[in-house]
Amino acid sequence: MVAWHHEPWCRYPGEAAVAWEIRSTTDEELDVFVGTLHAAFGRFPETPEEGGGGVWWSALETDRNVFAVAADGRPVGTAGAYSFELTLPGEVLAPAAGVTAVGVVPSHRRRGVLSAMMRHQLGELRRRGEFLSVLLASEALIYRRFGYGPATYTQRLTVPRHRAALGLPRARGTADAPSAGPDTGTVEVLRRAECGEILEEVYDRYRRAQPGALSRPHRWWALGAGQPPVSPKPRYVAVHRDADGVPDGYASYAVGDDTLTVDETIATDDAVFTALARFVLGHDLVKQVEFRHFPPEHPLRWQLADFRAGQVSGDTDWLWVRLLDVPRALTARGWFTDGELVLDVDDPFLGEHGRYLLTVRDGKATCAPTDRDPGLSLDVSDLGSVYLGGTAPSTLVRAGHIRAHRPGAAALADALFRAERPPHCLHWF
């Protein structure tokens, strides 16, 4: 679909008002799309891995890419989207557009090109019937104004080898919180090229139960599109198998400069994660082990005999979430506390405003327009931040982002929006 965006405020001294054509790309224009995007960031495309795969753009969905085209026909901006499933609280799998490849060439920045593309894209997502959009923000200042809010977080955990001993207490588990040990499985070391199907299968089991996780479609694995271990770059993989020999976890890693770096650790339960952590922490001839994309509230630090041995760094946002249809989004996820709350939601980028009565009973929600007085007033970007349960509404009240209109409204929102476990996303796109 072609849409012209006339933005008369984008007029520079001596220039006429500009109009951008926002149009879809074709398969034949993939190289132009990739070249324009790289020019926007001042970079050059990397060389594909041997075998023809391994470049991140090989998984782009051409029919979901758009150009911003100047009056002379030159592409000056790009934006794309992937088709993912996002795991919501309650182990609900929901379709979500993964916005990617967003850039404007330096000669055309600050003229309204990005806003035009974002407005066009959000309209297209709605026309497709999608109610959630997610992205990884290259800069934190850019995407909040388009209605996205940070919803999951990640960090690095670095452990010196000489302080890496685990001192697990002899605690009994419960049905709701099983103990992390003892482990009855085994760990096998494979090369990345030897275990592609195992990685794909184990990750898919993991992401279906982890709030905030995104699917990795088969074509991503087949094309090696992304970062290790999706890409075919050389890696060793510690594969954990249960007592029956079924793979139920893995850790992808490489050694360099006296550091063993773990790209990601995927485990179907805490005992498997502990077994994989014990394995990499026991690796010889390295001075430290660095876990990338480490979940902020993971219990591994408490399992170290020396609590201070776990050095946390790189604490940052990861997945940003935008709600495109508030009632559909709120009724899609699972809930763990009964109650009702009136939300007054403002969406300034799309010029929309709505007030909704959220009612939760027995894990299900209804959400309908209402004229009742609100309990909370918030921007749609802040609703995106609390949606997966990774950001407490009361935190945003204290920060001045959300306004609570009556005592107890923030505490009720905290109880309602919590998830069964902290949301976490590992997937890079």
UniProtKB/TrEMBL annotation:
Q: Which InterPro entries match?
A: Acetyltransf_17 (IPR041380), Acetyltransferase_Eis (IPR051554), Acyl_CoA_acyltransferase (IPR016181), Eis_dom (IPR025559), GNAT_dom (IPR000182), NAcTrfase_Eis (IPR022902), SCP2_sterol-bd_dom_sf (IPR036527)
According to its UniProt entry, the protein's GO biological process terms are:
aminoglycoside antibiotic catabolic process
Instruction: List the Pfam families hit by this protein, alphabetically.
Output: Acetyltransf_17, Acetyltransf_9, SCP2_2
In this chain the N-acetyltransferase domain maps to 20-173
Please provide the record's keywords in A-Z order: Acyltransferase, Transferase
Look up the domain of life of the source: Bacteria
- Which residues of this protein are catalytic? 143, 429
Residues annotated as coiled-coil are: none
- Asked if the keyword Disulfide bond belongs to this entry, the reply reads no
GO terms for MF: aminoglycoside N-acetyltransferase activity
Q: Which Gene3D superfamilies does this chain map to? A: 3.40.630.30, SCP2 sterol-binding domain (3.30.1050.10)
PROSITE patterns in the record = GNAT
Q: Does the entry feature the keyword Transferase, yes or no?
A: yes
Per UniProt, acetyl-CoA binds at 102-104, 110-115, 138-139
Q: Could you say which protein family the record assigns here?
A: Belongs to the acetyltransferase Eis family.
Q: How does it assemble?
A: Homohexamer; trimer of dimers.
Q: Which PANTHER family match?
A: N-ACETYLTRANSFERASE EIS
Q: What is this protein called?
A: GNAT family N-acetyltransferase
Report the source organism.
Streptomyces actinomycinicus
